[in-house]
Amino acid sequence: MPGKQYIPKKLTTLLVYGRPPLVFGGMLCAIAVMWTRSPVLYTLGVVFLFISMTFDLVDGWFAARFHPHPVMAKLADRIMDKVVYSIIFPLVAVGTMWRIHIISPDPNRAELLHAILVLLLTVTVLVRDNFAHFMRGFAIRNEQDPEYSEFARLRTIVAAPVGALLYAYAFYVPEGPATRIYSSISWLGNLPLRGLFFIEIIFLVINLGSIAMYCRKYGTLCLDELCLGNEGLRRRILAFFPNALTVMNAMMGLLAVFFAYQGRIREAYLFLIGAAAFDKLDGALARKLGLTEPLPAEKTNSHNISLGGVLDDVSDAVSFCIAPAWIFYITLTAFSNPVIRQMPIGLIAWGYAALGIARLVYFTLDKNPIPGFFKGMPTPAAAMLSMAPLIIFAQAVNEGSQWAQFWGLFSCGIMIFTALLMNFYPLRYLHLGRFMSRHPWFARLTLLLSVAVFTPYFGHMAFAYMFLYTLSPLVTWRIDPQIAAKETRVKPA
Fold first, then answer.
1. Residue 61 and residue 338: Cα distance in Å, rounded?
2. In Å, how far from its chain's centre is CA 168?
3. Range 375-389 burial, b when 16+ CB lie within 10 A, else e
4. Inter-CA distances, 218 with 72, 132, 227, 244, 434, Å
5. What is the pLDDT of residues 443-492, one digit of tens each?
6. Long-range contacts of 73-80 (CB under 8 A, 24+ apart)
7. CB 218 within 8 Å of CB 150
8. What is the pLDDT of residue 408?
9. Is the alpha carbon torsion for 179, 185, 186, 187 positive or negative?
10. How many CB atoms lie within 10 A of CB 478?
11. Sign, CA torsion 19/23/24/28
């Protein structure tokens, strides 16, 4: 019979509803492992979690073909996701604390920092699930079919593998039996913290981005029912969401400094990338929600300075001016080379931060902005450009390379060059975030290049990418500002 083929009911039911018992079994095994330190129970729990992960990766496709009620099956799939994540992520948070207390009784700072990050990740996952359920409820009440955003799809794909990986790490029991299945599983418990940090930071950004996307898609529906036509109240409530993303921008900058103190410049760079992502999201969300235009009663006020604008400038100053300067100072002063020590490292750091803040002040007070363009290099791009050589420098120092001195001096020169470039206002730099929104292929290419983080050439790739952006005004100045200001894909004429 032509048409859509449906999957047998029993198989679909097993895949959709089979995950909670598997995860519950994994939880019982984890509790027993904490009590007995049994390698057999550890192996069994990891097997349960990986089978559940496999079900999670395929059950959505099966649920869409559940006969005769595919819509109800999709709803069941979402409910099962919520149940499973409510079990697994608090469990791995407890397991990570148990590991640094029992398995590693003398943990170093990196292990303690990892445990704290897992706890923050757990809270974020649970908040995101409840918030997504709340916003989808408003969409259904207004007869709109809830659709997955790109962040939501990406989060659904990676959540189960991340949960299983953290379970295998958190409840690892050393000195197990010399069996093939234990050997093939136990290596996950000895993964380097650098790789785990990268995975968790990316997953954290995905979850926070998913929250932002739900606000962007369903925020208007939600407020229409809450505010009953009171536009002032509506705006005050709406302003919370972009302001929250702006605060996350500043938090990412502070976390970058914190990681730099641990000597983890690569992870600090990833946090600055997260700060740049939140900087894009908060502005896009504010424009989507109509918060950038003043109310009719406020248009007579020539000094339209809002709390959101001030908060955005403060967050940008923390993440893209102060944090890079601070990380530069931390990294260079820790190097004992006499040539580097003779450089005015503190003066360069202070100068970069001061010129970055001056560029933000100019951007705020500029009365003749060019839509879709920045006058001078924007502070997020400047932070990415100035930080990239520091990754190479830190790597050269750790390896004892003779190139360490060169990269230290090069980092000093790039900091000075970038600080001046931020305030060279005749240059017009394209808004890179909006360019990605208009050209999804470019966003996918950028995401593909990000796999370099797993290689020793991440710093080189990051610097090359940002150096090309530095030269981009030679080409992008020809783009019409009306097109450059658009945040959606430009349809061909």
1. 61
2. 23
3. bbbbbbbbbbbbbbb
4. 21, 10, 15, 17, 21
5. 788 877 777 877 888 999 999 999 999 999 988 888 888 887 776 765 55
6. 73/12, 73/16, 76/16, 76/17, 77/16, 78/133, 80/16, 80/17, 80/19, 80/20
7. no
8. 92
9. positive
10. 6
11. positive
Predicted TM-score (pTM) of this structure: 0.64
Confidence of residue 493 (pLDDT cuts 50, 70, 90): very low
**Bridge partners of 66?**
7
The identity of residue 33, as a single letter, is V
The residues, any chain, with a CB within 8 Å of residue 491's CB and separated by 6 or more, are: none
Reading the block at residue 19, the tokens are 């995950």
Tokens (6 digits) for 412:
């000093």
Give residues with Cβ within 8 angstroms of 349, minimum separation 6. 325, 326, 328, 329, 415
